[in-house]
Amino acid sequence: MYWLYCQRGDVENRLKDLHHGLEMDRTGCSRFLANQFGVLLALAAHILFQDLRRRAAGTTCVDAQVTTLRERLLKLAVSVERSVRRIVLHFPLTCPWLETWQHLARAVGAKT
């Protein structure tokens, strides 16, 4: 029975991700279709974050919530160098999550 209780807790954490991390509950528009589209975008983002979390196996972000993933991996100041054949991201020298970012980049097929 304890494993069932743990699964319920995991589901509640995913719902909390949708509520707090992706702000799915923000339906302030007066038009139904606009609100429905916003909820669908939040669900699509949730699916992408789930895939990112799955690919983060072996890193410190494997159990991270959406807000943590956003702050550690997406809200980064990088310099982008673009050429015809590739895009190079130059991270700051003091980037604390560089190894995690490199691991995830390799997991999605980036060449390093």
Plain-language structure description:
The structure is a single chain. The chain has a two-stranded antiparallel sheet. With 112 residues, the protein is mainly alpha-helical. Strand 1 (79-82) and strand 2 (87-90) form a beta hairpin. It has one domain (2-107). The termini are far apart. It has helices at residues 2-21, 32-55, 66-74, 98-107; strands spanning 79-82, 87-90.
Q: Biggest β-sheet: count, sense, barrel?
A: 2 strands, antiparallel
General form? globular
Sheet-strand content, in percent, reads 5-15%
Distance between the termini: 46 Å
Spatial sequence of strands, sheet with the most strands = 1-2
Work out the helicity level: 55-70%
Query: Helical region count?
Result: 4
- Count of the domains: 1
* Succession of helices and strands: HHHEEH
Number of E strands: 2
What are the salient characteristics of this protein?
mainly alpha; single chain; globular; 112 residues; two-stranded antiparallel ribbon
Helices, strands, pairings?
Blueprint: H1 2-21, H2 32-55, H3 66-74, E1 79-82, E2 87-90, H4 98-107
Antiparallel strand pairs: 1-2
Brief characterization of the structure:
The chain has 112 residues and is mostly helical. The protein is built from four helices and two strands; from the N terminus they run αααββα. It has helices at residues 2-21, 32-55, 66-74, 98-107; strands at 79-82, 87-90.
